[in-house]
Amino acid sequence: MIGGGGPGRLGGGDSTIPGRIPFFACVIVLVFGAFFARLFQLQLVQTDDLRQRSQSNYVRTLRLEAARGEILDRMGRVLATTRPANGAQVVPNDLRRPEVAYAALAQLIDGDAGDFRSRVGSPTGRQRFQPVRLAGDLSDDEFARLESHLFALPGVFTDRRPRRHYVGGHLAAHVLGYIGEIQREQLETRAFADYRAGEVIGQAGVEALLQHELRGLAGGRNQVVDVAGRVVDVLDEIEPVPGGSVTLTLDLDLQRAAEDAFLPDVLGEPARIGALVAIDVRTGDVLALVSKPSFDPNDFAGGIEAARWKQLSEDEWRPIQNRAISGQYPPGSTYKVIVAAAALEEGIATPGQKVYCPGSYRLGRRSYRCWKAAGHGWVDLHRALVESCDVFFYQMGVELGIDRLAFFARGFNLGRKTGIPLPHEQPGLVPTSAWKERRFAEPWMGGETVSAAIGQGFNLLTPLQLAVAYAAIANGGKLVRPRLVLRSEDVDGNVSEGAEVEVQGSVPVAAEHLARIRTALTGVVHEPRGTGGRSRVPGILVAGKTGTAQVVGLEHTEDLDEDEVALRHRDHAWFVAYAPADAPEIAVAAIVEHGGHGGSAAAPIVRRVLAEYFGESVGPVPPAPAGAPPESPAPPESPAPPESPAPPESPAPPAQARVAAAASAELEVEEASVAGD
Questions:
Q1: Which of the chain's ends, N or C, has fewer CB atoms near its CB within 10 Å?
Q2: Per-residue pLDDT for 445 more than 70?
Q3: How far apart are CA 74 and CA 487, in angstroms?
Q4: At what angle do helices 140-149 and 98-108 cross, to 10 degrees?
Q5: Distance from the Cα of residue 358 to its chain's centroid
Q6: CB–CB of 536/622 below 8 Å?
Q7: What pLDDT shows up at residue 291?
């Protein structure tokens, strides 16, 4: 019945709740019992195990840098390689007591605690967990000391990375170049789209030119570290893949001989300043390339120190500059072969034509001196080149005019880049009347042509340009592009050949005129009055031309002895040669900045390079025989006689006969000739 008081009625008392209290109490007791049991297990039973597991509390991922590929010379000898370098790093977040750690590191690895502190700084966020490298090339002793104390230095650990090593130090530094950390502006370019900040790349020379071939593929390692930053396990690892190797056209022995040739003759004297290029006249292969002063690219391998970079960049003699391809100099008398070629091709000079040299040349109201004050007398083109008579070329240049002269100079690829695959090559300058009008808004003057005809004035050339031009004379007129890379090979052995031999064109000079110039250049070295006698190599027929390029006007130096002239005001010394003269293989151009005369300063340098190339020993040049012909008598101090047919002379003997006679007697060049060029 509804509303009744029986136990089944609605609204009656619930007698089940009190009965359930024991049940809930049991559940609570069981839960807390399980909790305390687990707590007992964790705190007492598994204490040691859990302590060990807690120490291994995070995974660190390390990037494993790949070794750069080797750079080899043409014979497979190593020029640049990679060696392992031990380093020290810290993880800022793991340093318990940074100041103590910095002080300890300074003692262990001979560093500076303040420098370590500044390198690490005060990183925040994720940067706290990024390793900071404090030392990159520890000695074995330093590495051993640090390893033995790592247990007391939480957050400090050692590593081993590949480090670039240039076997010869300064040797071929301007060809090989150097490496450095990638710059922000480089990262923004398409060429470096797959690079990351902090990567080390080639920044100059072959290192930069062949960056993608030399670059390896980085690997990685996941390792478990404890709360002190100590590695306790390696989870997995991907090995880095080294870069490919590159074989250059350089000849290591020839390169070393060329660089040694710039060393001083007397111990303690400063080394010579200048540049040298040696190329194969048939292929354009660069066999040696020197620029002095130089630098050691090993200084850049681990990141160059600020003090060292400042020293290099502020040096007044610019050791970083590659003078062989970017040094632009007046060519001096080496330019006379261009004037001679132009004069022959234009019919201004003929085989029998002679010019009288009284020691000066008059144009308008001004006189222009020949290097030989007493004059050379009557000279033809052959003798003018052999003895480097200025007056002959003054007259040829004036008759040609600057624009025709410039046409032939450009025909020898002067005034433009040669195309060598190295950065920062300069084009030099071959002036024209139109160029001067644009540059200075002034007309070209006749006196400027006189200076240009002997390689002075506005003329500017690089040593490489002259080497290419003389190679063209030697090989019959072909302008061969300089080649630097023979081949590259990746880690799997796949070979890619370098650029093929490339003939860029031919000089605008007939073969018979080039032959006449080659005969004269042989005479420069082997005839008694030739200015290049100090380049002779026993058993080898050498052809070449000396040159002396003024740095300042004669009015600043003419009343001073050579050793009284300030170094910066002394003339540059040139010598350009090829050999063997009868079957040319190699051309060499050398300049000694502020070295004086080409015959005495630059020719001996070229001689040492040629001797190395042909495997000949170089001894002192023997003295001239007593029967050497006398100098041409100087004319009286009066205007030169009007042009008239030169007095008949017996024809000059063939080149082979002249050379054989000179070589058999090993004639030394006369001091008067050496003084000229």
A1: N
A2: yes
A3: 9
A4: 150
A5: 45
A6: no
A7: 97
- Rounded distance between C-alpha atoms, residue 306 and residue 472, angstroms: 45
d(CA 214, CA 18): 86
Q: Reduce the DSSP state of residue 288 to 3 states and report it.
A: strand
Among 210, 174, 482, CA closest to 321: 174
Q: Does a cis peptide bond (omega within 30 degrees of 0) precede residue 431?
A: no
Q: What is the 3-state secondary structure (H, E, C) of 40-92?
A: HHHHHHCHHHHHHHHHEEEEEEEEECCCCCCEECCCCCEEEEEEEEEEEEECH
Task: Give, in degrees to the nearest 5, the angle at Cα 376 between 370 and 380.
Answer: 105
Closest CA to 317 of 598, 556, 593, 573: 593
- Strand pairing category for 485-489 and 572-579: unpaired
What's the pLDDT tens digit per position in 175-201? 999 999 888 899 889 888 888 887 889
**Which one from 333, 488, 535, 632 is the annotated catalytic residue?**
333
Question: How wide is the angle at C-alpha 467 spanned by C-alphas 465 and 470, nearest 5°?
Answer: 110
Catalytic-residue membership of 333: yes
Residue 191: C-alpha distances to residues 186, 194, 205, 214, 284 (Å): 8, 8, 17, 15, 29
* Cα 619 from Cα 530, distance rounded (Å): 19
According to DSSP, the β-strands at 485-489 and 156-166 are: unpaired
CA-wise closest residue to 175 among 288, 293, 318: 288
Angle between helices 336-345 and 402-411 (to 10 degrees): 100
- Is the CB of residue 283 less than 8 Å from the CB of residue 483? yes
Look-up of token digits 């030399």: 214
Ordered DSSP codes for 128-185: GGS-EEEESS--HHHHHHHHHHGGGSTTEEEEEEEEEEETTTTTTHHHH--EEEPPHH
Q: Tens of pLDDT along 546-568?
A: 999 887 665 555 656 666 566 67
Q: What token pair was written down for 357? A: 């040299």
Report how far residue 250's alpha carbon sits from residue 277's, in angstroms, rounded to the nearest whole number.
Answer: 11
Q: Residue type at 130?
A: Q
C-alpha closest to that of 602 among 589, 619, 584, 621:
589
Six-digit token pair at 350? 């003929």
Antiparallel, parallel or unpaired: β 274-280 and 485-489: unpaired
CB-based contacts of 383: which residues, under 8 Å, 6+ apart? 376, 389, 529
Strand partners, 233: 224
- Tell me: the pLDDT tens digits for 14-70? 556 676 777 777 878 888 777 777 777 667 666 666 555 554 457 777 788 899 999
